[in-house]
Amino acid sequence: MSDYNGFIIPECFIDTRLTQFLLQKRVNHQHSCNNVVKVMCTKYKDDFAVGIIDDDKHGVSYLQEFYLEGQTKHLKFYTHNQKKHFIITVFPAMDGFIMDCAQEMRQPLASFGLPANLKDFTHLTKDEGILKDGRITKLLSVIQNHDEIVVLSKVLTYLMQSRYDATSEVIRTLVN
Fold first, then answer.
1. Helices and strands counted in the chain (H then E)
2. Residues 132 and 53 sit within 8 Å (Cβ to Cβ)
3. Using H for helix, E for strand and C for coil, what is the string for 110-131?
């Protein structure tokens, strides 16, 4: 992974790992929803940016400036009402999303040497070591064809390639 795409800004280690896996590019990892929004609103204030955040108990007020373009069971895709800013939220959080995808594809986490319960899996995904963990790579390789991961990949790829030319209409088509 050589190319760096600082304008793609995931919130935590497992979000970063999945995003880098799907795009085969390094991205701008941040440690919280608030930091993702801060980077979008400062460094990329008048530039293109894509934030990827968990849709958990903490609301992000910046989302009030966005339109919901579409959603899947775990993902919501938003576009800013004036800027070329996009936010993808993951419900309830990325680790639960990945576990659900694996379960729906009948791929037990234990078969990858990973914890089978959410609490232990989440504990593992909060560590920076997850970025190079071969077990996660194997898991992502197996579940990358899950319908929702395919949608996420298509939207991220489209946004990365189109940037300033990206449109709400195309995002809605990719999601719905």
1. 7, 7
2. no
3. HHHCCCCCHHHHHHHHCCHHHH
Pull the structure tokens for residue 109: 């986490």
**How would you label 119-138 residue by residue, b for 16+ Cβ within 10 Å and e otherwise?**
eebbebbeeeebeebeebee
Amino acid at site 50? V
**Tokens at 108, concatenated:** 């037990």
Nearest to 70 by CA among 84, 89, 53: 89
Name the burial class of residue 170, with classes exposed (0-12), middle (13-18) and buried (19+) by CB atoms within 10 angstroms of its CB.
middle
CA nearest 159: which of 17, 56, 30, 19? 19
- Provide, rounded to the nearest whole percent, the portion of the chain with pLDDT above 90: 91
Angstrom distance (rounded) from CA 50 to CA 163: 9
User: Distance of CA 105 to CAs 9, 50, 56, 84, 96, Å?
Assistant: 28, 28, 24, 35, 14
> How many domains, the chain?
1
pLDDT digits (tens, 9 = 90+) for 61-107: 899 999 999 999 999 999 999 999 999 999 989 999 999 999 999 99
* Residue pair 20/27 in contact by the 8 Å Cβ criterion: yes
User: What range defines the domain where residue 9 resides?
Assistant: 4-175
